[in-house]
Design brief:
The protein is an alpha/beta fold and about 475 residues long. The protein has four domains: about 1-70; about 80-190, Nucleotidyltransferase, domain 5 (2-Layer Sandwich), CATH 3.30.420; about 205-400, no CATH class; about 420-475, no CATH class. The protein has helices at about 1-30, 35-45, 55-80, 130-145, 150-155, 165, 175-180, 190-205, 210-225, 225-240, 255-265, 270-280, 285-300, 305-325, 335-350, 355-365, 385-400, 415-420, 420-425, 445-455, 455-475, and strands at about 85-95, 100-110, 115-125, 155-160, 185-190, 370, 375. The longest helix has 27 residues, at about 1-30. It comes from Oreochromis niloticus (Nile tilapia). This is DUF4371 domain-containing protein.
């Protein structure tokens, strides 16, 4: 009898594991919970024992909640038990139903030496003030096992976007967290900062807004009308081009999406001109619609537009590459600073030395022909000042993309330490060392970093000296 009961328990356990694996697959691949009954039926037909219960979509939701809670508990225990350093990343969002929520992510070395960024929790906010967000964030951390004492010793950094509620000088979320954790390092998302720098350029340089408005017209023309999209596809096929998708440019999305739009217009320039010409001469359209296509064609075939297109293509190609580099998970602060410094020098160089697409557009301006399309002058289409544009881009990126905490954050006791942070980190890079290296070179910087990140000072200094000797012996 006892053996029979034990066999029944093992069979129930095995079927329950099968059900849990099925639910986990649905959650991991983002499938709807209603897939659960269908997946269970499929596995039963394949001979898998799935038991008689826990087959509904509600059961799937409950199972995934349980799995998520256990996984979160395991992650937190690993971080706390091993006393790992912790960074918090948050972003405010809104659900489809209009509720304000807070997305919380953690970055830490979880079960490995290399840090990972993981989604931690989605919190429904009772209010959207800085106080409400701060209380919700700290409550989330405390409820999941991060007590105040642990956070004081191991919470290193806080990252967010540039909203005033997050980075307000006096009462922002960052300022309130800094008052509780004096050594907290606050970081304004680099990609958000890059977008702000681009917005500053839009305000300073004339002609960019006109270019943006025209490309938005193209997006509206083809995005809202399958007929226009089909006609453009036929035009591209007739001229032997592969049609690329035209989206919005310099909108709320990252600059990489703007680069794809400008590339689409550049590559499909001839197809657009053919479509506009044919539509303007199509007698089946009314006079108003034909006049609209004629006006679009007049702007598209101007010398100024082609030059602007080349300038924007060069700029957005560089900005897109920079944006993607900054989004890399393994990007470090020192690497980001070097990349930004290099990119600023590229923009400064492009003030006097045009990029490849700008050079092509300048040659087209001289020959009055671009991609087999004749061009004409039109004073109403404002030409972007090439030198002013790239000079403004270099200055605004240099001004916005600072290596220390955002200027919006209220001043804390760690202000002086933060001002030396990047220079102290550079001491760890052997390629920045002087030719004649003193044995105590960089010891003061290492001590400041140890104090900043609350790690063992003496062990770090001794290890750094050993690292210098090891590097010196190899040269």
């Amino acid at each position: 009898m006892q053996k029979h009961i034990e066999d029944m328990r093992k069979a129930d356990y095995a079927s329950t594991c099968n059900v849990f694996r099925t639910a986990y697959k649905i959650g991991k691949h983002g499938r709807p919970f209603t897939d659960m009954p269908i997946d269970v039926q499929l596995q039963v037909l394949n001979g898998v024992k799935m038991g008689r219960v826990l087959h509904s979509n509600n059961s799937c939701a409950n199972i995934l909640d349980h799995i998520a809670a256990e996984m979160k508990k395991k992650v937190v225990n690993d971080i706390v038990m091993n006393e790992r350093k912790l960074c918090v990343l948050i972003d405010e969002s809104t659900t489809i139903s209009g509720k304000s929520v807070l997305v919380v992510c953690l970055r830490s070395a979880i079960s490995s030496e290399n840090p990972d960024t993981i989604f931690f929790e989605l919190i429904e906010l009772q209010g959207t003030t800085a106080k409400d967000i701060t209380e919700a964030l700290l409550g989330c951390l405390h409820n999941n096992g991060f007590d105040p004492h642990y956070l004081q010793e191991h919470l290193l950094a806080f990252a967010c976007d540039g909203a005033s509620v997050m980075l307000g000088r006096k009462a922002g979320v960052a300022a309130q967290l800094c008052s509780k954790f004096p050594y907290l390092f606050v970081w304004h998302c680099s990609n958000h900062t890059l977008e702000l720098a681009v917005c500053d350029v839009l305000k300073e340089v004339g002609g960019i807004n006109h270019f943006k408005i025209f490309l938005d017209q193209l997006y509206s023309l083809y995005h809202a009308s399958p007929k226009n999209q089909r006609e453009l596809t036929e035009s591209a096929h007739n001229v032997g081009q592969r049609l690329l998708v035209i989206g919005r440019v310099l909108s709320v999305r990252w600059v990489a999406s703007s680069e794809r739009t400008v590339k689409a217009v550049w590559e499909n320039y001839q197809a657009l001109q053919v479509h506009f010409t044919n539509a303007a001469a199509d007698t089946s359209r009314d006079s108003r619609e034909r006049a609209k296509y004629k006006g679009l064609n007049d702007v598209l075939t101007t010398v100024s537009f082609v030059v602007n297109l080349g300038i924007m293509y060069d700029a957005l190609t560089e900005l897109s590459d920079l944006s993607r580099m900054l989004q890399r998970r393994d990007m470090t602060l020192d690497q980001a600073d070097r990349q930004l410094d290099r990119q600023i020098r590229v923009f400064e160089s492009m003030v006097s030395t045009p990029g490849p697409y700008t050079q092509t557009a300048i040659e087209a301006e001289k020959e009055k022909i671009f991609r087999n399309v004749c061009l004409h002058e039109n004073q109403r289409v404002i030409k972007i000042n090439h030198g002013q544009f790239f000079r403004s881009l270099a200055e605004n990126v240099k001004c916005r993309m600072t290596p220390t905490t955002s200027l919006h954050v209220s001043k804390t006791s760690s202000e002086k330490t933060d001002s030396h942070l990047l220079s102290d980190i550079k001491v760890l890079q052997s390629d920045s060392w002087p030719a004649s290296l003193d044995i105590q070179y960089g010891d003061a910087a290492v001590r400041r970093l140890c104090q900043r990140f609350r790690v063992g000072e003496r062990e770090s200094v001794l290890g750094f000296r050993e690292y210098k000797d090891l590097k010196a012996s190899k040269t």
